[in-house]
Write a structure and sequence with these properties.
The complex is a heterodimer of chains A (about 90) and B (about 900). With about 90 residues, chain A is mainly α. Chain A is built from two helices and two strands, in the order αββα. The longest helix of chain A is centred in the last third of the chain and has 33 residues. With about 900 residues, chain B is mostly helical. In chain B, strand 4 and strand 5 form a beta hairpin. The chains are: A mainly alpha (about 90), B mainly alpha (about 900). At the A-B interface, helix 1, strand 2 and helix 2 of A face helix 5, helix 11, helix 12, helix 14 and helix 30 of B.
């Protein structure tokens, strides 16, 4: 793989990581602070726990896990770049 | 019940432990051993100062009163932290680049280093935080009372406040430089974060499995109204999520730990999921604890103390002690960080401007600003805790305090529009920020803060002077909604509208424009500061004056180190640095790290007497930079394209240079060729002119030579003229059908004499006399004679032979002339066609070397080709290919087609 192709790949994967980091809070708002929550606003229980409570905590946990995956990837990419494993990509406009 | 003495001993022991941790970590950080102190884990734990005793005790109380709603206080920050890419990332970078010391400093620095704005934010923060501190003091004393059974609230609270003030002063004001982070304090707070989480998890596990017997059992005991699916997601849910998200950005203590104390931007990435996880764990047992409290504790118990009363009711003294320490941890960590953040703001934005004014009036006096600032910070910390204590003693209603958490959130949220607008919108102006903050702050005071203090007052219920439209909780008739939602809509709504509206219409000062660009585009610059930005300022000062100034603020040693470092970078080691614009900018940033941007700016303006350039000048520079960056970007994208073009250019250049060389060679060859006959003509003419002893026979011979030479000269000139005409296309060649056989015969006739004298045998295979080619008969004859005479002249074989043959190649006819003289080598094959070139077979008689180039030019002009063809055995012959005449071509084609 040429250095240019490698740089393109790095740029591309980094853009995807960035996109994921940018999209995550919108997913969070959709799950926890949008009219979507009315879907689970019913009188039911799951394993003895009210559905509303279970939903909020499960969605919360999922968001944390997603943030962990995204964060670790971004850190790994930054470290790889620093060690020079992949060519440094020119900083573009944020 | 535990004895008061045991409790005091444990609390004091814990405080001593905190002191030890803070002391050791400060020492290690100073000795540069404190690497683990700067880990993402410690950073995350220090951010958890968000979870105060209002969380530790209050969340369960809130859950007991309003069910799941408590979770919004942690969901808002979760959304902000998992969305770190949008806001926190930029805030942390700006904080590092611009040496931001507090949230008031951020706002002031962004809007043109405005002191007024800094003061407004500071006052807002003070107003919102003081009751919050009172709340922490109250929770410590209340839990103390609950566990020891005593009622000396005031006395306990007083000593708690004193202890906290001592701790904060000791570790929070060691230096005044906010960039020298409070490692000891951060470490102690991280430890407290672990303790409070462990305590809450322990009591939660005890409540679920120790008391109720399982998760299903505990929710079986849940009162139906606690989690009502129909009302849980009401307006309060969304409002509180928004407020909590704003608070985690804007609360002074959160800004302090997240932005100011940040040592590495990468820690933020880890905190983006670890801090939500911390809050998730803190929230996990809140609802079960609230249910257990309601189910197992006597009716009428204070829900805010369920956490500590549960273990006490079941006689779990150790657990109760752990809970007490956990609550103590959450309260003290909040108070310590809030006091540090507030004291920085007060000293930098209220005391420093006043001190500077006094200092400048007595310019020569050796007043040390540093001492003034440190003292003012210590006094401020004491004053803030004193205010909190005072607040606690005069508002003995617990309800008023419990509501303070959310009220403080709304107050802190007033900074949100100005802060977020400031880092994403370059057009945000100081006037807009002032209008938004002032209006939002006043509305917050009027609709939420004051009514909470005086809930029973007549002006709250009926409006001031009985004006119903001004009722604080139903402003302009907006009645029937929750007071919190009401206050949020009014204060944040008016705040945002004014901020945007006034910003659009207000004029902008140059410094605002500059700071706006630097903040909004902070990622365009390097990580280490705006050192690579163009210099906008034109300031001058004597370096000695600057040094005195720096000494007063930073202290003598730090100032000396800083100036040495700058001088080293400038290449002036051992001397004072040159006070150029870059140096003054750097000094201003360093000073800003100690006293805030506004004060540092004012101070240096005063010392240097300069002002930054005019607005149009700034715009010019900004545009220039912008253009430059765009060009660089597009250049980078077009590098390959450019490289290709460059190599094409290189090739063209090489070709041109070769042509140039050939032209020079040609000229020198021409002059050489002309010179030889001219020399002989001239010398013989001189002999004739001298007439000394020249016989008549000699004279005739000389004249003959002159004649022959002038003919040669003329022929040479004709040839040169001919070739230049042919090459430039100036001479027309008329084409007509010519019999190939006839042309060859004619040429052979012309060289018969030459051939006979050289004893060359000519073999001829004439083509069908009917084959016609399109050519100019004279020119064709010239070419053939040239080729034939070359073959005769340069044939050194013992039995010289020449063969002439033709090949029918469809539309073309090839005339091949070969000899047994050895042909030419492949290297020579092209060389011989260039002007004045002579093959290695050159014999005694020499031509000018123009014959072949002229022949080739003629053939090409007639639409054919002339070249050397190599046989497989390496021998070669000249081949002249000429197009056949039209009618002939067609007949040939039809003949071939018929044959097929």
């Amino acid at each position: 793989m040429s250095s240019r192709a490698a740089a393109d790949e790095v740029l591309f994967s980094r853009r995807r990581q960035r996109d994921a980091a940018m999209a995550l809070p919108f997913l969070g708002v959709l799950l926890l602070a949008s009219p979507l929550v009315y879907v689970v606003a019913v009188d039911a229980t799951i394993f003895g726990v009210p559905l509303v409570v279970a939903y909020v905590f499960i969605a919360w946990a999922l968001l944390i896990m997603a943030a962990r995956v995204v964060g670790r990837r971004i850190l790994a990419a930054a470290e790889a770049e620093e060690r020079g494993v992949v060519p440094t990509v020119r900083r573009r406009q944020p | 019940m535990l004895s008061q003495d045991t409790l005091l001993a444990v609390a004091l022991g814990y405080v001593v432990l905190l002191f030890a941790v803070a002391f050791l970590c400060d020492r290690r950080a100073q000795l540069a051993h404190g690497r683990w102190l700067q880990s993402p884990l410690v950073y995350t734990l220090s951010i958890s100062v968000y979870c105060t005793s209002w969380t530790f005790y209050g969340a369960v109380g809130s859950a007991a009163r309003s069910g799941l709603e408590f979770a919004t206080i942690y969901l808002g920050p979760t959304l902000v932290f998992i969305g770190w890419w949008w806001t926190l990332r930029k805030l942390v970078r700006i904080g590092r680049v611009h040496r931001i010391t507090s949230i008031a400093d951020l706002i002031s620095s962004r809007y043109g280093k405005s002191t007024t704005l800094a003061v407004i934010v500071t006052l807002l923060a003070l107003t919102a935080t003081t009751p919050y501190i009172a709340l922490q003091l109250q929770s410590i004393t209340a839990s103390f009372e609950a566990i020891s059974g005593t009622t000396h609230q005031t006395r306990t609270a007083f000593w708690v406040a004193c202890g906290l003030a001592a701790f904060t002063i000791l570790f929070g004001t060691r230096t005044i430089n906010a960039n020298e982070r409070h490692h000891g304090v951060v470490a102690a707070i991280a430890l407290e974060a672990v303790v409070k989480l462990a305590a809450l998890l322990a009591v939660g596990i005890f409540a679920v499995w120790g008391v109720a017997g399982g998760i299903g059992e505990i929710f079986d005991r849940m009162p139906e109204e606690m989690v009502d699916p129909d009302t849980v997601f009401g307006p309060r849910w969304f409002t509180m999520t928004l407020l909590a998200g704003a608070a985690v950005l804007c609360l002074p203590r959160q800004f302090q730990v997240t932005v100011v104390e940040n040592t590495d931007e990468r820690h933020l990435v880890t905190a983006s999921w670890m801090f939500p996880l911390y809050m998730f764990l803190m929230s996990l047992f809140v609802l079960p604890l609230a249910i257990a409290g309601q189910a197992y504790l006597p009716a009428g118990s204070n829900p805010d103390l369920y956490v500590i009363q549960l273990p006490l009711a079941f006689d779990q003294k150790t657990l109760a002690l752990l809970v007490f320490i956990g609550g103590f941890s959450s309260a003290t960590s909040m108070v310590i960080v809030a006091a540090i953040a507030l004291s920085t703001m007060v000293s930098n934005h209220i005391v420093a401007p006043l001190a500077l004014r006094a200092l400048m009036r007595s310019n020569a006096a050796s007043g040390d600003v540093r001492e003034v600032l440190i003292t003012s910070r210590r006094v401020t910390i004491g004053a803030i805790l004193g205010l909190g204590f005072l607040y606690l003693t005069i508002t003995d209603e617990t309800a008023a305090l419990a509501a303070m958490g959310l009220i403080a959130f709304v107050g802190a949220a007033q900074v949100l529009p100005v802060m977020v607008g400031g880092i994403v919108w370059r057009g945000a102006t100081r006037a807009g920020a002032l209008a938004g903050l002032a209006a939002g702050g006043l509305l917050w005071l009027y609709t939420l803060f004051l009514p909470a203090l005086a809930a029973e007052a007549a002006w709250v219920a009926d409006g001031p002077f009985g004006i119903a439209a001004l009722r604080p909780q139903a402003l302009f008739g907006l009645a029937g909604i929750d007071p919190l939602v009401h206050a949020t809509i009014w204060s944040l709504g008016v705040n945002t509208m004014l901020f945007i509206g006034v910003s659009i219409f207000a004029p902008m000062r140059p410094l605002e424009l500059l700071q706006g660009a630097l903040f909004v585009q902070v990622f365009r610059r390097g990580e280490d500061g705006p050192s690579d930005t163009p210099r906008f300022t034109h300031r001058e000062a004597a370096v000695e004056d600057l040094f005195v100034l720096a000494q007063r603020i930073l202290g003598a040693d730090t100032a000396r180190d800083l100036f040495d470092a700058i001088a080293r970078e400038q290449g002036n080691e051992g001397r004072l640095p040159v006070p150029d614009d870059a140096m003054i900018d750097r000094l201003e940033r360093e000073l800003a790290g100690s006293i805030g941007a506004a004060s540092a700016h004012a101070m240096l303006m005063r010392a240097t007497g300069g002002e930054i350039g005019s607005l149009s000048e700034l715009l010019d520079i900004a545009d220039e930079t912008q253009k430059l960056m765009e060009t660089t970007l597009s250049l980078a994208e077009k590098t390959d394209e450019l490289e290709e073009t460059a190599s094409a250019l290189r090739r063209a250049n090489e070709r041109l240079r070769k042509l140039d060389r050939q032209k020079d060679e040609f000229l020198s060859q021409v002059s050489h060729e002309l010179r030889t006959p001219m020399t002989s003509i001239r010398s013989f003419s001189e002999i004739l002119l001298s007439e000394n002893g020249v016989t008549s026979a000699e004279r005739t011979r000389f004249v003959d030579i002159i004649h022959a030479e002038s003919i040669r000269l003329t022929r040479l000139l004709d040839e040169i003229l001919d070739i230049s005409r042919l090459e430039s296309g100036a001479s027309e060649i008329q084409l007509e059908p010519v019999s190939a056989a006839g042309a060859i015969e004619g040429a052979l006739d012309s060289v018969t004499g030459l051939a006979r004298s050289a004893r060359v045998i000519v073999d001829t295979q004439l083509p069908d006399p009917g084959i016609m080619i399109a050519a100019n008969p004279d020119r064709l004859r010239q070419v053939l004679i040239n080729l034939l005479s070359n073959a005769v002249k340069y044939n050194a074989a013992e039995e010289p032979r020449i063969a002439v043959s033709t090949t029918d190649r469809g539309d073309f006819l090839a005339i091949d002339i070969s000899d047994n003289g050895g042909g030419v080598t492949k290297d020579e094959a092209e060389e011989i066609f260039s002007k004045f070139a002579r093959g290695r077979r050159v014999g005694a008689e020499q031509g000018a070397g123009l014959g072949l180039p002229i022949s080739r030019a003629i053939v090409e002009r007639m639409g054919g080709e002339l070249g050397v063809v190599f046989r497989e055995d390496g021998s070669s012959f000249f081949r002249t290919t000429l197009p056949r005449a039209n009618e002939n071509r067609e007949s040939a084609r039809s003949a071939r087609e018929a044959a097929e």
